[in-house]
Design goal:
- By secondary structure, this protein is an alpha/beta fold.
- The chain has 9 helices and 14 strands.
- The longest helix is centred in the C-terminal third of the chain and has 15 residues.
- The radius of gyration is 17 Å and the shape is globular.
- The model has no long low-confidence stretch (mean pLDDT 98).
- Bound molecules: zinc ion (ZN).
- The site of zinc ion has 4 residues, from loops.
């Protein structure tokens, strides 16, 4: 059965992700940066919220938590390492732990780089990856607290997931990422077609995500970087990119 997932746009360019365990109807919500846009989606899914799943401590991923906990009585799962700067956690997890949403289990993957305590959740059954601000469509997160070596290792772990895995990331950055990625790999045909598809989706006001790990392996220069030095160089290039 597994888990199904729906993107909920919030704030200016964030995505929260509504998850449903098909076997039990258990509902989870990843990274609610505000509460108001979540409520209609939760109501449409049956009017209950069992779990809030957090990838990292930034306000645009957690600021909706208090209101949603008060409204629905949801429990909260997040990283032990960031307990001091996350909302109150009902389940604290580290690398290799499992989080259960009904009968669906997610493996916790340590993904430092964007922040020190950043984690991702991988639901093998259903093929869903909640990766916050680590991996984006055609990009990766800024290195606000971590090193290029840490981000390289984090991306290596995500690249090893099955190619059909849905990458459910925290932001709609795809057009900007595509413009930069094309400066890194101008002759990459898969990237060219992804950039065109993203332009068309955004012109219709539609999300460009989720994408799959396989699509990203073909087109995302950050996931394709062969070593730490390459990743460091292209991440710095993106930081300075205006386009
Ligand atoms: Zn962030």
């Amino acid at each position: 059965m597994g888990v199904t997932v729906t993107a909920i746009p919030c704030l200016s360019d964030n995505y929260a992700w509504l998850l449903k365990d098909e076997a039990t109807g258990t509902i989870g919500l990843c990274d609610p940066g505000e509460s108001a846009p979540m409520i209609p989606a939760i109501e449409a899914a049956g009017g209950k919220l069992d779990w809030i799943i957090l990838t990292h401590h930034h306000g645009d991923h957690i600021d909706g938590v208090a209101d949603l906990v008060a409204r629905y009585g949801a429990k909260v799962v997040g990283a032990t390492a960031d307990e001091h700067r996350l909302p109150k956690l009902d389940q604290k997890v580290v690398e290799g732990d499992f989080f259960s949403l009904g009968e669906s289990r997610a493996r916790v993957i340590d993904t430092p780089g964007h922040t020190r305590g950043h984690i991702a959740f991988y639901f093998a059954d259903g093929g869903v990856l909640l990766c916050g601000d680590t991996l984006f469509a055609l990009g990766c997160g800024r290195l606000l607290e971590g090193t290029p070596a840490e981000m390289f290792l984090s991306l290596t772990k995500l690249a090893a997931l099955p190619s059909e895995t849905l990458v459910c990331c925290g932001h709609e950055y795809t057009l900007s990422n595509a413009r930069y990625a094309l400066t890194v790999e101008p002759d990459n045909a898969a990237l060219q077609s992804r950039a065109a598809a993203a332009e068309a989706l955004r012109a219709e006001g539609k999300p460009t995500v989720p994408v799959t790990v396989g699509q990203e392996m073909a087109a995302n220069p950050f996931l394709r970087a062969k070593d730490v030095d390459t990743l460091a160089r292209i991440r710095l290039g993106k930081d300075n990119f205006r386009g």
